[in-house]
Structure formats: C-alpha cells, structure tokens
Amino acid sequence: MVVLITGISSGFGLETARLLAQEGHTVYGTVRRDVEQLPGVHYLKVDVRDREAVQSAVQQVVDQEGRIDVLINNAGMGIGGPVEFATEEEIREQMDANFMGLVHFVTAVLPFMRKQGEGKIIAMSSIGGVMGLPFQGFYSASKFAIEGYCEALRLEIQQFGIQVVVVRPGDFSTGFTASRKKTPNPEAMKAYQTYAESMNKVEHDETGGLKPQVLARKISQIIRKKRPCHGYVVASFEQRLSVLLKRILPARWFEKILGSYYKL
C-alpha cells in the first residue's frame, strides 16, 4: 500500500513509518526540518499549516505512485497552562498544527481517494479528545475538534468506499513531553497554585508511559483490517477504564474523579 504519514521526525510518526516500511508498504512522510532518514521511507518537507505546501506534497505522491491508499494524520504539538493565560498566538498555533493541519491533508487527499473508490484516513486524536484535560485545555479542544470533524467526515465519504478511523493514545513515552510548550507567565503560577504540580504529574505519567512502537503496531493492524472500528483507545488499562467511565458515569461524578486525579 501507498501510505502517507504526517509528522515522522519523532515519536509515533517515526516508529509507524519505520514499521510500515519494514512491512513492505510504500511510505511517504512529512517533516518540517532535516532529520536522519529511515531506509525505505520517502521524505517530504512540509509544514502542515501551509495549505498550498500540503496540496503540492500530496500531488507529488500521486504523481510518483498513482494513488494514496492510507493517510495517517499524526503531526501535532501541545501547549500546557491555564486556559485563561493562553495567548492568541498560542491558541492559533495549537489549533492550526493539530486540527487545521489534518483538515489540509484530508482535503488534499480526498479527490484522489474518491476517484480510487477506496482508502483509509487515520486521524490521531487522544484520550484528551474525549475528556477535557485540565491545564491542557486548548490541546483537548484541538482533539475534540478532530473527533467531531471525523464523525461528520465518516458519514459523508463512506459512499465512496473510504474509511475513517480515529486513534486515541493515552500516555506514551515520546519526545512530545519535552517539546510541549508551557506558559511562562508567573501570574499563572501564582493564580493557579496546582498548575505546576498537575503538569509535573502529567509529565511523570507520560515519561513512564507506553512505548511508541505499541501504537505503531496498532496502526499496522488497522491498515490490514478490512473493516476496522471507527475508533481505538491505545492506552494503559487505567486510562482505557477512564474513557469507559467518561461514557457511562454522570458528568459530575466523572468530573470529581478527574479532578481528584489532578489534585484539583
């Protein structure tokens, strides 16, 4: 299969590109900077926020291969801090990287998949896309946006034989933790005294989390499935349980559980 993955410089994208190339797929991946290249992977220098650059990259793959069978929307970033103190620039950066980047690639790929009469679109959400994570509010908002977009998209394009799958990772040990941007505003630290402790707990959980190869193997399985599920939670037992509880418990009960976890 011809697979296009966004954001393969590290973490999920890197390990997924590595595994799929080893399995014999034709893999194209996007990066924003020069990186050490994996054998058997074709690299495209693209900023997912640049719609014209995205369209050009997709056309390049189609010109070279004649089709795109799987699009894996992985590129993204995170911003931490009280939502009150997020700047307009930070909010736009968060939404553009995580949500609009996905939209740009889906919009560019769809005409070719419709013509093919088949294809898979895999969108990287998060368990933070089904529950609002304190001090990561705009990160959660970007993932909630992906969830709603994919629900609508799935219904619209199923008539063309195109499948849409949402993947919701929990805590993973990747470079995402170190690259997360956190508000430097001292007033935020003073006003929200639990902020620093909560973010320390988040980072501790992430660095002790699952390895990105676990998620890469799940994506490989999804690609091979003829009829994959609409969504998958890839996380520890406790985090998978939290997603279940979010669905079945009254909102106030779950809010108390989540707040207690973050010591709020």
Write structural notes for this entry.
It is a single chain. The chain is α/β, with parallel strands linked by helices. Helices cover 52% and strands 16% of the residues. It contains ten helices and nine strands. The strands form two sheets. Strands 3-2-1-4-6-7-9 form a seven-stranded parallel beta sheet, sandwiched between helices. β6, α4 and β7 form a beta-alpha-beta unit. α1 packs across α8, α2 packs parallel to α3 and α3 runs parallel beside α4. The longest helix is centred in the middle third of the chain and has 29 residues. The protein is globular.
Topology:
Layout: E1 2-5, H1 11-22, E2 26-31, E3 41-45, H2 51-65, E4 70-73, E5 79-80, H3 88-116, E6 119-124, H4 137-157, E7 162-169, H5 176-179, E8 181-182, H6 186-191, H7 195-207, H8 212-224, E9 231-234, H9 237-248, H10 251-261
Parallel strand pairs: 1-2, 1-4, 2-3, 4-6, 5-8, 6-7, 7-9
Question: Which key features would you list for this structure?
Answer:
single chain, 264 residues, seven-stranded parallel beta sheet, two-stranded parallel ribbon, globular
Roughly how much helix do the residues carry, as a percent range?
A: 40-55%
- Strands, count: 9
Distance separating the two termini: 47 Å
- Global geometry: globular
Quaternary structure state of the chains depicted? single chain
Q: Characterize the largest beta sheet: strand count, sense, and whether it forms a barrel.
A: 7 strands, parallel
Order of helices and strands: EHEEHEEHEHEHEHHHEHH
In percent terms, what proportion of residues is strand?
15-25%
Major sheet: arrangement of strands: 3-2-1-4-6-7-9
Helix/strand structural class: alpha/beta
Uncertain runs with pLDDT below 50, 5 residues or more? none
Mean pLDDT: 93
Radius of gyration: 18 Å
The number of helical segments is 10
